Amino acid sequence: MWASGDAAHHHRWVQSSEYAIDIARLGADLRSFKGDGTQLEDYPTFGAPLYAVADGVVVAVRDDQINNAGGLRQPDEPFDAYQRRVAESQQELILAAGFAGAAGNYVLIRHKGGEHSLYAHMRQGSARVRVGQVVSSGAQIGEAGTSGNSTEPHLHFQIIDGPDLNTARGLPFVFEGLRNDWIEMSGRHLRAGDVIERE
Predict the structure, then answer these.
(1) CA quadruple 164, 186, 178, 180: dihedral, nearest 10
(2) What is the mean pLDDT of residues 84-102?
(3) Which sign, positive or negative, has the C-alpha torsion 53, 186, 145, 42?
(4) What span, in angstroms and rounded, lies between the C-alpha atoms of 171 and 163?
(5) What is the phi/psi pair of residue 159, to 5°?
(6) Assigned CATH class of 10-171
């Protein structure tokens, strides 16, 4: 996991994303890509199945945005130049389309208590659900991608208190069923840098 609700991360700057996390698959070398990382297919996260975290009803689906291959860092690109390039493109996107545009392709699910789960930056054309559909916990809803203001394939996940991505408030959450390693993972808020596995 490479971004969370930690105070030092960008998610804390946006009310709806305050407790959001970004999750990417890692290879055996604990890197998020193989080779030079210049192609979307270099990333094991790209195209990985995404599943609903709880029972609910789908209230929004967007599936037409391209995968943002232009957000990938190039091998010879200095980090400061990369950061400037990404910041400029993300600002343009948010100003033009708000946070719903920044989410790229996404699925939003309403749950029993009124909470909503958001699965953002999905792969173009991968949504497997439609608005109004009832989904069960563990049902596949789409595939991971890099649409919207994404810099590489990953899942942006958050829980919010309503359906409007621009005005909803982020809610804290925990995952169960994670494998303990040198620290207890069950019921703990995940943080940037955590490497997680299911039991």
Answers:
(1) 150
(2) 76
(3) negative
(4) 13
(5) -115, 130
(6) mainly beta
CA-wise closest residue to 118 among 76, 82, 162, 79: 162
Cβ pair 1, 185 in contact under 8 A? no
pLDDT, tens digit (0-9, with 9 covering 90-100), for 46-67: 999 999 999 999 999 999 998 9
119-178 pLDDT tens trace: 999 999 999 999 999 999 999 999 999 998 888 999 999 999 999 988 899 998 887 766
Q: Can you name the residues that pair with 178 across neighbouring β-strands?
A: 198
Q: In sequence order, what are the residues at sequence separation of 6 or more whose Cβ sits closer than 8 angstroms to the Cβ of residue 137?
A: 51, 52, 53, 54, 55
Distance CA 115, CA 163 (A): 9
